Amino acid sequence: EVQLVESGGGLVQPGGSLRLSCAASGFIFSWSDMSWVRQAPGKELEWVSMINSDGSSTYYADSVKGRFTISRDNGKNTLYLQLNSLKTEDTAMYYCAKGGPTGDRGQGTQVTVSS
């Protein structure tokens, strides 16, 4: 059974930073591409970033490019998302997903950007 547990969210001021983590189990993590997606209240699910299985290729939505960095540690079965220069519009529930943005997701971690 695929299990994904996100953590690291919180309340941060505009311009601040957070590092999200996603602990994976129940599948061979090092074989799987991984994604981050987010959903703001009243809005549709938005793809944020994707990383291939060995971490050699990364992809970002235009809205976060240059501010967010996706990475992974296959030895620890963990996916990360470094969020820098946060904006109020980044406020959302953030989920990691196995494979692409429609894959199995965890319960999410809330990121709130507010002064």
Compact description:
The protein is mainly beta.
Largest sheet: 6 strands, mixed
> How much helix, percentage-wise, in residues?
under 10%
Number of strand elements: 10
Whole-Å distance between the termini?
40 Å
What order do the helices and strands follow?
EEEEEEEEEE
Per DSSP, the total helix count is: 0
Radius of gyration: 13 Å
Strand order of the largest sheet: 2-10-9-4-5-6
Give average pLDDT, whole number: 97
Which secondary-structure class do the elements indicate?
mainly beta
Strand content: over 45%
**Unreliable stretches:** none
Label the overall shape.
Answer: globular
Structure description:
It contains no helices and ten strands. Helices cover 0% and strands 48% of the residues. With 115 residues, the protein is mainly beta. 32% of the residues are buried.
Which tags fit this structure?
115 residues; mainly beta; six-stranded mixed sheet; four-stranded antiparallel sheet; 0% helix; 48% strand
Topology summary:
Blueprint: E1 3-7, E2 10-12, E3 18-25, E4 34-39, E5 46-51, E6 58-60, E7 68-73, E8 78-83, E9 92-98, E10 109-113
Parallel strand pairs: 2-10
Antiparallel strand pairs: 1-3, 3-8, 4-5, 4-9, 5-6, 7-8, 9-10
